[in-house]
UniProtKB/TrEMBL annotation:
Keyword Membrane: yes
Keywords: Cell membrane, Cytoplasm, Golgi apparatus, Membrane, Nucleus, Transmembrane, Transmembrane helix
Subunit structure: Interacts with PTK2; regulates PTK2 activation and localization. Interacts with ITGB3; regulates the levels of the heterodimer ITGA5-ITGB3 integrin surface expression. Interacts with P2RX7 (via C-terminus). Interacts with ITGB1; the interaction may be direct or indirect and ITGB1 has a heterodimer form.
The keyword Signal is annotated on this UniProt entry: no
Topology term for the membrane: Multi-pass membrane protein
One Pfam entry name: PMP22_Claudin
A GO CC term attached to the entry: Golgi membrane
Main location group: membrane
Subcellular location: Apical cell membrane; Cytoplasm, Perinuclear region; Golgi apparatus membrane; Membrane raft
Family: Belongs to the PMP-22/EMP/MP20 family.
Organism: Aquarana catesbeiana (American bullfrog)
Membrane-crossing residue ranges in chain numbering: 5-24, 65-85, 97-118, 138-160
Descriptive protein name: Epithelial membrane protein 2
InterPro entries: EMP-2 (IPR003933), PMP-22/EMP/MP20-like (IPR050579), PMP22/EMP/MP20/Claudin (IPR004031), PMP22_EMP_MP20 (IPR004032)
Amino acid sequence: MLVVLAFIIIFHITSIALLFIATIDNAWWVGQDFYVDIWKICLNATKTECLEIGSNNPNFQAIQAIQATMILSTILCCIGLLSFGLQLFRLKQGERFVFTAIIQMLSCLCVMIAAAIYSSMYDKFHPALEIKNGTFGYSFILAWIAFAFTLINSIMYLILRKRK
Protein backbone atom coordinates (compact mmCIF):
# COMPACT_ATOMS: atom_id res chain seq x y z
CA MET A 1 0.00 0.00 0.00
CA LEU A 2 2.89 2.34 0.71
CA VAL A 3 4.21 1.82 -2.80
CA VAL A 4 0.82 2.78 -4.25
CA LEU A 5 0.67 5.91 -2.08
CA ALA A 6 4.21 6.88 -3.06
CA PHE A 7 3.37 6.40 -6.73
CA ILE A 8 0.25 8.56 -6.40
CA ILE A 9 2.19 11.31 -4.63
CA ILE A 10 4.90 11.29 -7.31
CA PHE A 11 2.23 11.28 -10.03
CA HIS A 12 0.45 14.21 -8.38
CA ILE A 13 3.66 16.23 -8.01
CA THR A 14 4.43 15.53 -11.67
CA SER A 15 0.99 16.88 -12.60
CA ILE A 16 1.64 20.03 -10.60
CA ALA A 17 5.01 20.53 -12.29
CA LEU A 18 3.48 20.06 -15.74
CA LEU A 19 0.76 22.59 -14.95
CA PHE A 20 3.27 25.15 -13.70
CA ILE A 21 5.45 24.76 -16.80
CA ALA A 22 2.48 24.91 -19.17
CA THR A 23 1.10 28.01 -17.46
CA ILE A 24 4.33 29.97 -17.13
CA ASP A 25 6.58 29.01 -20.02
CA ASN A 26 6.52 30.88 -23.33
CA ALA A 27 5.88 28.14 -25.88
CA TRP A 28 2.19 27.64 -26.64
CA TRP A 29 2.59 28.70 -30.28
CA VAL A 30 6.06 28.73 -31.82
CA GLY A 31 7.58 29.58 -35.16
CA GLN A 32 10.98 30.10 -36.62
CA ASP A 33 11.55 33.51 -35.02
CA PHE A 34 8.86 33.88 -32.38
CA TYR A 35 7.39 32.34 -29.24
CA VAL A 36 3.84 32.92 -28.04
CA ASP A 37 2.16 31.91 -24.83
CA ILE A 38 -0.96 32.97 -22.99
CA TRP A 39 0.82 36.01 -21.53
CA LYS A 40 3.07 37.52 -24.19
CA ILE A 41 4.48 37.34 -27.70
CA CYS A 42 8.26 37.28 -28.20
CA LEU A 43 9.15 38.27 -31.74
CA ASN A 44 12.71 37.00 -31.88
CA ALA A 45 14.45 33.80 -30.88
CA THR A 46 16.38 35.40 -28.00
CA LYS A 47 13.13 36.44 -26.26
CA THR A 48 14.37 40.00 -25.81
CA GLU A 49 11.63 41.72 -27.82
CA CYS A 50 8.44 40.68 -26.06
CA LEU A 51 5.00 42.24 -26.23
CA GLU A 52 2.38 41.65 -23.60
CA ILE A 53 -0.95 40.44 -24.90
CA GLY A 54 -3.14 43.36 -23.97
CA SER A 55 -6.71 44.53 -24.05
CA ASN A 56 -6.20 45.89 -27.58
CA ASN A 57 -6.44 42.29 -28.83
CA PRO A 58 -9.96 41.64 -30.16
CA ASN A 59 -10.08 38.26 -28.41
CA PHE A 60 -8.69 39.43 -25.09
CA GLN A 61 -11.59 37.94 -23.11
CA ALA A 62 -10.86 34.48 -24.48
CA ILE A 63 -7.17 34.89 -23.62
CA GLN A 64 -8.16 35.95 -20.10
CA ALA A 65 -10.37 32.85 -19.84
CA ILE A 66 -7.40 30.68 -20.79
CA GLN A 67 -5.16 32.45 -18.28
CA ALA A 68 -7.74 32.13 -15.51
CA THR A 69 -8.48 28.45 -16.10
CA MET A 70 -4.78 27.52 -16.28
CA ILE A 71 -4.08 29.37 -13.02
CA LEU A 72 -7.15 27.82 -11.41
CA SER A 73 -6.14 24.34 -12.50
CA THR A 74 -2.67 24.79 -11.01
CA ILE A 75 -4.11 26.08 -7.73
CA LEU A 76 -6.66 23.26 -7.57
CA CYS A 77 -3.99 20.65 -8.21
CA CYS A 78 -1.88 22.06 -5.36
CA ILE A 79 -4.92 22.10 -3.06
CA GLY A 80 -5.63 18.51 -4.09
CA LEU A 81 -2.17 17.44 -2.93
CA LEU A 82 -2.66 19.18 0.40
CA SER A 83 -6.10 17.64 0.88
CA PHE A 84 -4.65 14.22 0.02
CA GLY A 85 -2.13 14.59 2.82
CA LEU A 86 -4.79 15.72 5.28
CA GLN A 87 -7.30 13.04 4.30
CA LEU A 88 -4.72 10.27 4.44
CA PHE A 89 -4.56 10.34 8.23
CA ARG A 90 -7.81 12.02 9.25
CA LEU A 91 -10.66 10.18 7.55
CA LYS A 92 -11.87 6.63 7.94
CA GLN A 93 -11.85 4.08 5.13
CA GLY A 94 -14.52 4.59 2.48
CA GLU A 95 -14.56 8.36 2.95
CA ARG A 96 -10.95 8.93 2.01
CA PHE A 97 -9.89 10.83 -1.05
CA VAL A 98 -13.36 11.65 -2.39
CA PHE A 99 -12.74 15.35 -1.83
CA THR A 100 -9.28 15.06 -3.37
CA ALA A 101 -10.70 13.24 -6.39
CA ILE A 102 -13.30 15.98 -6.88
CA ILE A 103 -10.64 18.68 -6.70
CA GLN A 104 -8.50 16.80 -9.22
CA MET A 105 -11.49 16.43 -11.55
CA LEU A 106 -12.06 20.19 -11.36
CA SER A 107 -8.39 20.78 -12.12
CA CYS A 108 -8.65 18.40 -15.06
CA LEU A 109 -11.72 20.24 -16.32
CA CYS A 110 -9.97 23.62 -16.10
CA VAL A 111 -6.95 22.41 -18.09
CA MET A 112 -9.22 20.91 -20.71
CA ILE A 113 -11.18 24.15 -21.04
CA ALA A 114 -8.02 26.24 -21.42
CA ALA A 115 -6.38 23.96 -23.96
CA ALA A 116 -9.61 23.54 -25.92
CA ILE A 117 -10.21 27.29 -26.13
CA TYR A 118 -6.62 27.85 -27.24
CA SER A 119 -6.71 25.10 -29.84
CA SER A 120 -9.98 26.35 -31.32
CA MET A 121 -9.01 30.04 -31.45
CA TYR A 122 -5.20 30.17 -31.67
CA ASP A 123 -5.23 31.80 -35.10
CA LYS A 124 -7.53 34.58 -33.87
CA PHE A 125 -5.37 35.40 -30.84
CA HIS A 126 -2.38 36.45 -32.90
CA PRO A 127 -3.51 38.47 -35.91
CA ALA A 128 -0.01 39.25 -37.23
CA LEU A 129 0.70 37.37 -40.45
CA GLU A 130 4.17 36.19 -39.46
CA ILE A 131 2.85 34.64 -36.26
CA LYS A 132 0.20 32.58 -38.06
CA ASN A 133 2.93 30.48 -39.68
CA GLY A 134 3.78 28.40 -36.63
CA THR A 135 2.99 25.24 -34.74
CA PHE A 136 1.78 24.34 -31.30
CA GLY A 137 4.64 24.46 -28.80
CA TYR A 138 5.62 22.17 -26.00
CA SER A 139 3.73 24.17 -23.34
CA PHE A 140 0.49 23.49 -25.21
CA ILE A 141 1.39 19.80 -25.43
CA LEU A 142 2.28 19.78 -21.72
CA ALA A 143 -1.12 21.26 -20.95
CA TRP A 144 -2.81 18.31 -22.68
CA ILE A 145 -0.48 15.86 -20.92
CA ALA A 146 -1.33 17.56 -17.60
CA PHE A 147 -5.00 17.09 -18.48
CA ALA A 148 -4.43 13.35 -18.90
CA PHE A 149 -2.35 13.14 -15.71
CA THR A 150 -4.92 14.96 -13.57
CA LEU A 151 -7.72 12.82 -15.01
CA ILE A 152 -5.82 9.60 -14.28
CA ASN A 153 -4.88 10.90 -10.85
CA SER A 154 -8.50 11.68 -9.96
CA ILE A 155 -9.56 8.20 -11.07
CA MET A 156 -6.78 6.69 -8.93
CA TYR A 157 -8.06 8.63 -5.91
CA LEU A 158 -11.56 7.26 -6.47
CA ILE A 159 -10.23 3.70 -6.73
CA LEU A 160 -7.93 4.17 -3.73
CA ARG A 161 -10.67 5.41 -1.42
CA LYS A 162 -11.84 1.90 -0.55
CA ARG A 163 -8.41 0.33 -0.06
CA LYS A 164 -6.89 -0.39 3.33
